Amino acid sequence: MPRTEQVKWILNWQKTEQGMAMLEKHLVPRYPESAADMNDQEIQAWFENWKKSEEGEAFSAAHRRQQQESRHYAAKTEEDGTFRVEDVPAGRYSLHVTVQERREGRQRYGRQELIGSLNYQFEVPDMNEGRSDEPVDLGRLEIRIRKRLKVGEMAPAFEAETLDGKTIKLADFRGKVVLLNIWISQASECIREMRHLK
């Protein structure tokens, strides 16, 4: 896993944190349309009643089953950045890697600063008799180095997909004031905050 650009930090690959997990459909309860107008107590009361419903019990059973069947792996990274995970069953997986700065002296015992990361999805094909000695080589993976932005600096260009499937680019809003709201659908406080943004 090479670096994508020259950096001044010393990378310690053996202190790289990485994990691999089987890709699963993210299960989210279906909140009512009125959830945006509910307070915490009202949403909690709705959720407790919903869990007892047929839909809620089916959701809980599916969630428990998913947790029982989920697979997670950790890998030791060698000095050259290579790693190996043994006996991985067929399926689709997501690999997450974080690279941290190696500090010298007393500072090496403190919290290490994140300077790069990688999220990569791949598939392990079906194998005869459920296993094979033939390795799945992911090839050369590039770590994206994080740029340290300071207040007032130009934001990096990016694009994303909107909820209706269109592409939105930061450059389209050049010269305008942009509010970026980061939220998740399963958090009730995020749902309530949305009404203040309309």
Described by its quaternary structure, the protein is single chain
The class by helix and strand makeup works out as alpha+beta
Helix content: 10-25%
Provide the number of structural domains: 2
Low-confidence stretches: 1-10
Q: What share of the residues does DSSP label as strand, in percent?
A: 15-25%
| Largest sheet report | 5 strands, antiparallel
3D shape: extended
User: How many whole angstroms does the radius of gyration measure?
Assistant: 22 Å
Number of H- or I-type helical stretches: 3
What is the average of the pLDDT values? 77
In the sheet with the most strands, the strands line up as 2-1-3-4-5
State the order of secondary-structure elements, H for helix, E for strand. EHHEEEEEEH
Strand runs, count = 7
> How far apart lie the N and C ends?
43 Å
Compile the SSE list and pairings.
Blueprint: E1 17-22, H1 40-52, H2 54-69, E2 72-74, E3 91-100, E4 114-124, E5 144-145, E6 159-161, E7 167-169, H3 188-197
Structure description:
The chain is α+β, with helices and mostly antiparallel strands. 20% of the residues lie in helices and 19% in strands. The model is unreliable at 1-10 (pLDDT under 50). This is Alkyl hydroperoxide reductase subunit C/ Thiol specific antioxidant domain-containing protein.
